[in-house]
Amino acid sequence: MSDDATPGGQVEERGPNPHSITGVSTSTAAFIGIAASGPFIPTLITSFTEYERAFGRPDGGGFLGYAVRGFFENGGTQCYVMRIEATGEPAESLQSLESLDVSIVCSPDANSVSGMAAALVAHCEKMRYRFAVLDAPQTPAPTDGPPDALRSSYAAYFYPWILVAESAGQGEIAVPPGGAVAGIYARTDREQGVWQAPADKEVVGIAGLDQSVTEKQGEALNSVGVNTLRNFPGRGTLVWGGRTTSQGPDWKYVNIRRYFIYLEHSIENGTQWAVFEPNGKQLWAAVRRSVSDFLFNEWKSGGLQGSRQTDAFFVRCDRSTMTQNDLDNGRLIMEIGVAALRPAEFVIFRIGQWTADAEPCGR
Hints:
The protein is α/β, with parallel strands linked by helices. It has helices spanning 48-55, 64-73, 90-95, 116-127, 178-191, 215-223, 254-270, 281-301, 309-312, 324-328, and strands at residues 29-33, 43-45, 79-83, 104-106, 131-135, 155-159, 162-165, 172-175, 201-202, 208-209, 227-232, 236-240, 313-316, 331-338, 347-354. The protein has a 9-stranded mixed β-sheet with strand order 2-3-1-4-5-6-11-12-9, with helices on both faces. Strands 8-7-10 form a 3-stranded antiparallel β-sheet, with no helix packed on it. The two termini are 38 Å apart. Residues 1-13 have low confidence and may be disordered.
């Protein structure tokens, strides 16, 4: 603490933050699809061997097993798997995933289950903190881009399919690439950070591509929201594109959308303690400190741009972010701006929490 009676310099000791924010996990996936056997409820799986014990070999009529195998081969460490019927209602099936702590969702059988791909997108938009990895049909090349129902900043679309070893050892089979891509997402998050674009990454565990994509074709597909997989001599098969399916300029890139999902989810979870506090200046200062400390660590870790802290982020939580009506109803509103790793100015988002001053009927 400071001592104003002491002449000369003053020292103020600042103790550890009792309300520090911990970043949420971003690498747990959920796979939903068709299998020969196994439970029709989400099941936590931590290896492909564990998957086979629960759901059988991949050659069960759908691509679920191949997607899970590709996920683990490419760096995934854990996922939830749910078996569905091909004739089931996708939206109802996805409700079973809502209570789970997952960040990536994928259905390798979406092209054969009516409405599944659109349901995945709607699910991620509803849940806010999830991202869908979507597979284009096997052929032809989607030169017009994803269908309008799949246009979203919460989804990415991939082409072409990949060739992998058939599970019975009878040669090769073409399967959707989403499982392998989800594994690359998880690996990139863990090794480099969720702010890193999950592109220019090698796809392992495959024999090749079902369709070759030239540089010119890849550029044309990328311009309409299709991320391609391409073979480069000496480098292998790489994910060559990191765009969402959104047609808006603000959320064009997968890493930007997924990084903001991570930031918003972490801050929302990490400020839940505010619900027990009176909504006043002391609380506002504590919230600003918690969020600022968290974002400072993100900046120092390389997630935010700027040579100075003030160039990287700002946090506001005071009378300028809340109306009298907010205060009367116990609403705490934060305004946060961060400079993500791209040529852009601050992207601003708002997070609200109920405080101890909220009326029970207003929550």
